[in-house]
Amino acid sequence: MELATRTQYALSPGADEALYVATDLGWWKTDCAATFSRDVQINDTAYRRLDPEYFAWLRGKLTLAKEAADKGRIDRTAFDELRARFQEIEAWALEHFGAQALLVAIRTHEPRTYCPPQAESETRRLVPPPRDDERINRAIRLVDGIREKALSVGWSLELLYRHEGFHKRPFAGQYGLVCYIAAGARLGEVARQWIEIIGPPPTEVRTRFYNPDVDQPWIVRVDPTKK
C-alpha cells in the first residue's frame, strides 16, 4: 500500500488542530487540541491524537486487513469502508506532518512494542483515581493568586476550584481549573474566555483552560424561538 503524495490534498492546517482516531479508524477533529489529552474516551471508544507513530501503526493494521480481505477472511465491503476512512486520515496526516515524517515513522515503527489506545471498562471507570492532595493544594494556591482578576472577567468559583482530590477525566464538566494544573506548572494570562497554564521547565508548554460559560469562537448558539 503506497503512501499518497502530499500534493494530492489541500486541507488547511491549523496550529491548534488535531485529529483523534480510534483503532477502528473512526475519527473526529478539534481546533482546540490543547484542551484534550493524548487519549480520549467517548462512551466505549478510545481515541488517540494522531501523530506519525500512531499513523504508522494504523497503516500496518490496514495492511493486515487488506491481506485478510484478499484471502476472503473478511468481507470486501467492510475492508473498502476501512480503506475509505484511512484515506481521510492519511489526507489530514500528509497535510499536517508531511510525507517525509510519515515515511520515517513507517520505516522505524515497531508494532510489537506499540501500545494503541484502549477503552476503559465500565468497572474501571467507576473506580476513582488516587487522590493527589499535594498537587491540588499547590494548584489551589496558584488559583488564589489570580482569583480576583478571574472573577472580575466572568469566571465562577466553581470553574476555578471544583475538584475531588485528583485530575479530571475527559468530558467531565464538574472539574475546575485546579485539576488541570500539573506539578511544577504555573498560571499565565487570565482572560474572559480562557486562563493560560504554563507547563514546568524546560519546555514550558502553554495550554489554555477554557471558560464554558462564555461565548467561544467555535460555539454557535441557536435561538430556538427563531426559524
Task: Provide structural commentary.
The protein has 227 residues and is of the alpha+beta class. It folds into 2 domains: 6-124, no CATH class; 133-210, no CATH class. The protein has 6 helices and 7 strands; from the N terminus they run ββββααααααβββ. It has helices at 52-70, 76-97, 99-108, 122-126, 133-152, 157-161, and strands spanning 18-21, 27-30, 39-42, 45-49, 186-190, 194-198, 206-210. The strands form 2 sheets. The protein has a 4-stranded antiparallel sheet, covered by helices on one side. A 3-stranded antiparallel sheet has the order 5-6-7, with helices on one face. A hairpin with a 3-residue loop joins β5 (186-190) and β6. α1 (52-70) packs across α3 and α2 crosses α3 (99-108). The radius of gyration is 21 Å and the shape is elongated. The termini are far apart. Residues 1-14 and 168-172 have low confidence and may be disordered.
